Amino acid sequence: MAAPAAQHDGVHIRKGALADVELVASFNQAMAKETEDLAIPHDVVTRGAKAVLEGKAAAAYYLLEVDGENGGDAADDGHKVVAQLMITFEWSDWRAADVWWVQSVYVRPEYRRRGYFRALYAHVRAEAQAAGAAGLRLYADVGNERAHRAYEGLGMRSHYKVFEDMFTSY
């Protein structure tokens, strides 16, 4: 088995910064369209990403960059952001600790199947353990079989159903 992407030279994982807001918003729009066929207005996803990146929401983005490519990203530093995920926090009174929810997972299509999500997940998993979290959870659209297989490949298992009563159409 090949080493995870983060163990290769040229891969960097960092927390998102306000300068990343347009990139994160574009990833979120692409993910919504691809996974649920939703067209979310750009101003909505931008406001949502900005709230996280400004620290106004109990969440954080993690971005994976690769070296040697000009990605047109916020920082013109020879790195290209190719993957993201967002973490939110849920207090578990059963465990007296936070459960970290993995959300807004996106890998640029041309960078998929290279171990980048696995590396990003491993990084966040290690941070969650170090922070004393009870564990990680995520949800995926019921029809997103490719995502289900990826998450199962990481050792995650599903034993819950998520119910919702949403007040918006997206």
TrEMBL record:
<protein>
    <recommendedName>
        <fullName>N-acetyltransferase domain-containing protein</fullName>
    </recommendedName>
</protein>
<keyword id="KW-0012">Acyltransferase</keyword>
<dbReference type="Pfam" id="PF00583">
    <property type="entry name" value="Acetyltransf_1"/>
</dbReference>
<dbReference type="InterPro" id="IPR050832">
    <property type="entry name" value="Bact_Acetyltransf"/>
</dbReference>
<keyword id="KW-0808">Transferase</keyword>
<feature type="domain" description="N-acetyltransferase">
    <location>
        <begin position="11"/>
        <end position="170"/>
    </location>
</feature>
<dbReference type="InterPro" id="IPR000182">
    <property type="entry name" value="GNAT_dom"/>
</dbReference>
<dbReference type="InterPro" id="IPR016181">
    <property type="entry name" value="Acyl_CoA_acyltransferase"/>
</dbReference>
<dbReference type="GO" id="GO:0016747">
    <property type="term" value="F:acyltransferase activity, transferring groups other than amino-acyl groups"/>
</dbReference>
